[in-house]
Amino acid sequence: MLLTVARIGRAHGLRGEVALDVRTDDPDARLAVGAVLPTEPADRGPLTVARTRVQQGRWYVAFAEVPDRTAAEALRGVDLLVEVADDDEDEDAWYPHELAGLRAEHVDGRVLGEVTGLEHLPAHDVLVLREPDGARTLVPFVRAIVPVVDVPGGRVVLDPPGGLLASDAANLVVSEETAGDDD
Fold first, then answer.
1. What is the pTM of this model?
2. What is the pLDDT of residue 175?
3. Where is each RimM N-terminal domain found (predicted)?
4. Contact 66, 13 (CB under 8 A)
5. The domain spanning residue 158 has which CATH number?
6. pLDDT band at 27 (very low <50, low <70, confident <90, very high)
7. Distance (Å, rounded) from C-alpha 108 to C-alpha 8?
8. Rounded-to-integer distance, Cα 141 and Cα 57, Å
9. b vs e for 40-63, b when ≥16 Cβ sit within 10 Å of the residue's Cβ?
10. Residue 10 lies in a domain
């Protein structure tokens, strides 16, 4: 199974180095010098890691096949992939394809919708939830809000704070202070 470990960002410098949006919890191993990485789209690779460096928490990589800035700029948005075994499982880690299609339930048992995907944002990942009325809601994928991920059971359990879900708008209580004057 091929999984995305990083997305190539902007070119950095004149010698073909690129910034990466890392999507793996083990970049040192996945992006080691000499690693040959398939790409998506496939016609942009494979790419061989020639050197890496981390500066202020940001990964920069040079590939053997990318000699200059022009070639590096052409790679922006390309995903770097890695082959993983289907039995390579971490108890507290899920791949986007495992989460898509799961039923989202509230801690009280109400069905809140269906998970349609996972997005990687700068602060943290978010689940993309399609609520029963079709509304698209982004739910922070943190343990406090998503305490249970039950892939075999086909569900995630959410404990969302008030106002997070689009369906909460219909249940908002307006106090006299915020309602304004009716006079």
1. 0.54
2. 57
3. 5-84
4. no
5. 2.30.30.240
6. confident
7. 41
8. 22
9. eeeebbebebeebeeeeeebbbbb
10. yes
Amino acid sitting at position 133: D
Distance of CA 70 to the CA centre of its chain: 28
d(CA 4, CA 90): 16
Q: How many separate domains does the chain show?
A: 2
Q: Which residues contact 94 (CB under 8 A, 6 or more apart)?
A: 149, 151
Residue 134's Cβ-side half-sphere holds a number of Cα atoms within 13 Å equal to 0
Domain boundary among 83, 117, 145: 83
Look up residue 167 and give its two tokens: 């369906």
Are 17 and 66 part of one and the same domain?
yes
Give the bridge partners for 59, in sequence order. 20, 54
* 79 and 101 part of one domain: no
Q: Tell me, yes or no, whether 119 and 149 share the same domain.
A: yes
What is the per-residue pLDDT across 73-111, written as a single tens digit (0 to 9) for each? 999 999 888 877 655 554 556 767 778 888 898 988 888
